[in-house]
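Discussion board: Methods & Data

I've been asked by a reviewer to show the raw model output for two of the constructs in my manuscript, not just the figures. I'm not sure how much to include, so I'm pasting the format here to get opinions. Each protein appears as its amino acid sequence followed by a line of discrete structure tokens. Is this the kind of thing reviewers expect to see in a supplement, or should I convert it first? Here is construct A:
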Amino acid sequence: MDGEVTVALIGGVGALVGALLGGAATVWTAKEQGRMAVQTALHTARSTYLGPLDTARRSAQREVFAAFLTVSQEWARSAEPAAEAARRWDADVGGLLDECITEGRAYTGLNTELRQHWRRTIDRCGTTQRLTEAVQHVLLEAAGTDVARAAQNVEQHARRLASLLHGAGETQLRDQDGVSTDDPSNHVPPSPERSPNQLGALKEAIEAFTWTAAAHLNTRDANNGPDTSSSA
């Protein structure tokens, strides 16, 4: 093959490759521009749709968080006299045990009238059912968030306090197999401060929920859109 033909062929191939590459670039550019246009349109549509939806969701969360806070604070306030009654009941039992040991007489517990008095005072605070229901609403609106965990923490503290209130005045036997349960030295007296201390822990958990819920809502408002830091 002579030089002129070789040059012509090489030149033709180069032109063909250039045309193909140029055409491919044009097609790719068109596709990319089309993809970006579609993404922009989808983003605009999503923002238009989710904006009001997210605003409504934030409003619903505020209502649920406020309702939970109200219920938990009300129960904590009602538990204050109950915790004091439990403290005095536990203290009375401890004092009676000391007297029985000192005087060498059997322990038969506080008299019925005094036990009924403390029990009536404790029972006035009611159960934690409303608080548990309020927690479920928080979980529905903010599942997987710090707010939901803070609400569950409040419920757990309330349940612990309710358990202590229910067990006020009860002692623990040092020797479960002991044949004489009326032996005062075989009884471990209850701690008078256990219910008040748990009430304090409950109040701290409620305060922590308040700050956590406020931070969650403020973050969403500042972003003016879905909070991407959590699942809700």
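Construct B, same format:
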Amino acid sequence: MGAVRTALVDALFAALPVALVYFSGWAYLTSYLGQFGIDATQFDVSFTTVLVYAFVPLQSCMVLGAIAVIVVLGFIGFLIEFHAKEDSKGVRTVAASFGLFAVVLVVVLLFIIKAAATTAARDMSDNVWKGEKSQSVVPLVDPRKDDPSVKLYNACRDGRRLRQVIGLPNQLFLMCRSAVDECNRGTLFAVSSEGKILYSADKVREEINVRKICQP
């Protein structure tokens, strides 16, 4: 029974870091895309892409501090149980208490990561609206000149108002900032890897009436 328990604990500790990193990346990605009304579940996002974005919220001081506390408590619990060679009920109870507290902190850590991801995603979306993110121009393949979305796209391109939201292997999301209210309003374009406009949608920045991100 002890060997089974040890194997389960080892498996948990081995999988936990990967699960937390993946959760961090997915929380950031969904929050960031949600700022533009994009549902991340509607298209394929590779595992490596999620892992890359995971390091944005993981750099938060609150997240790093919580992780450090969990590691220290888990290590202390391990040392207590490791040195309890005899079947000391009191010592094992203390070790179990440390382990339980560490599990509770892991749950709390999920909420901390989510909060950090939301804050980082909002800051990154502000960079798009302020025009501080990279400008991207995707040539359209055989565009219909009379299509209103094509005309708007070309006007945005010529006015250097296109900013990349995110680039994926099969499509690219671009934000055309409004020529009148560039920090708050615009048009979102989804462009395929073949250079075709999949759809376009008018967008208004979230918290437009709460936060001003550009000087008047």
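Answer (T.O., handling editor elsewhere):
This is acceptable in a supplement if you add a one-line summary per construct. For B, something like: The longest helix spans residues 89-129.
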